[in-house]
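Database export, one record per block. Field names are fixed; values are copied verbatim from the stored entry.
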Amino acid sequence: MRTRSLPLVLLCLAALSLACTSATPIENGAGGRRYFGSLRMPPGQTLRFALGTEPELRDPGTMSGQPDGRFARMVFEGLLTADAQTLEPREGQAHRWSQSADGLTYTFHLRPGLEWSDGTPLTAHDFVYSWRRVLSPASASRNASLMYAIRDAEAYSKGEITDSTRVGVHAPDDSTFVVTLESPTPYFLTLCTYYTFMPVPRHVIEAHGIGWTRREHLVGNGPFLWSWWRRGDRYEFTPNPRFWNASKVRLQKVTAYTVDDLNTVTNLYKSGAIDWCPSGYIPSQYLPFVRDYADFRHGRYQGTYFYSVNTTRAPFGDARVRRALSLAIDREAIARDLLKGSRDPWGLIAPSGYPGYVSPEPVRFDPERARAELTAAGFPGGRGFPGVGILFNTSEDHRRIAEAIQAMWKRELGIEVTLSNQEWGSYLQATTALQYDVARRSWIGDYLDPNSFLNLLTTGDGNNRSGWSDPEYDRLMREASRTLDPAARYAIMRRAEAVALEAAPFLPIYHYSTNELVKPWVRGIHQTALDVHPLTYVWIDHQWREHEPIAGSRGAER
């Protein structure tokens, strides 16, 4: 009989007895290093972590969400993978590739003997099918625009052409996959590491239709198999023996708990029930308490937190109303008081960290101008304004920020604000269907380029979810995509970002930072600029105390 771990509800009850600010002793390692919580290791090569909220989708071609992406990177693998430390493209299903002199054609050579987890051969034709499927209007993939660099991909995705064979992806034989681009795209290889570009099993999809992602049907090609699941509890994964590099996969079991309550996640880590508390799952009010422990990690990464405004609803179709809402947000107060300095206030759409890109002037807190904009829109002092609802997915931090902005808009603009929270799947459906007034949003860069953020606001992008469309903005973004000179390209994108800030379909709030807790025995999880953590080659060091650095030293590989 199979032995199962304790149900999550029992783990939660045990964990919740440990308040983060209690006097519970903090265990010490060798060399005087202090760690947050229990140092009792799990047996064998087992990793336990918080997946976050329940993934909405398990189809890499149509998903859009961090929990979904973590699932995909365990069960599937693309042509290329991201280096665990630098996120640079590395060999995956393709073991070599070449680029034409004009930068328009990439030729990928697949490894010999690739198989799906059910033993079916995996060929270059699977990539042709999978990429065309993402672009098919019938798939409604929110990330289809990531493939628009490919020749005729955008036209096919938007229904302007119906012949999928015109899309620039071809397989001259079983082991060769050729991609032809519309124009040179400096970040194309990085795109190939993203989950949208992973292959999916055509033979399973055709056999089971929409039910192909059920556990009993799902077939992958990645390092792990999805072995067990209980909704609202956990996912379990075991090694995939048919993975091309199975001999290098050291973890024998991965347990990913679906918990979205931040206090619970942090206390599970403290109690020793999980080994990794990913960024975003430590309550902001606890960060000052945990930041000095040896297992805490902090760094800036490519992510912004913002509100999107449904521009298809009155009165939010008026840019003056949207600007008033944006100008009445005190970002400094949110970052300082609510988030305890763990994140930086941010008045831009694209984050920092792109050498050579000079951002336009950011939006700042200006209540006087905000009131003037609302008056110009016909609502002096908020009189006659129909009110506004803020939608957010379930999270204590999201609620606290929404409550703060509710108070700001009431105080500075005189408008009434209601709050509504939904679980992750319903929230994504509501924002996609534009069933909201103002919604909490965030975006983590898919690749290290401002285009990853600015492209969200182009007309028809699956992740726009604001209904905003501006011909001048679209024109600038198209011009940038055709511009080869990096400085000229960035200058065009700067103009585009300025247009979007003035129109205010997105209301920026803060710049993400990574704040995570990782037990000292976990090796191979690194802080990265995109908060992406491939788990393929992570392992558990049972001799970690012998390898532990002395307190105050630079530290060992984690």
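Remark 1: Residues 1-25, 550-558 have pLDDT under 50 and may be disordered.
Remark 2: The domain at 78-202 is CATH 3.90.76.10 (Dipeptide-binding Protein; domain 1).
End of record.
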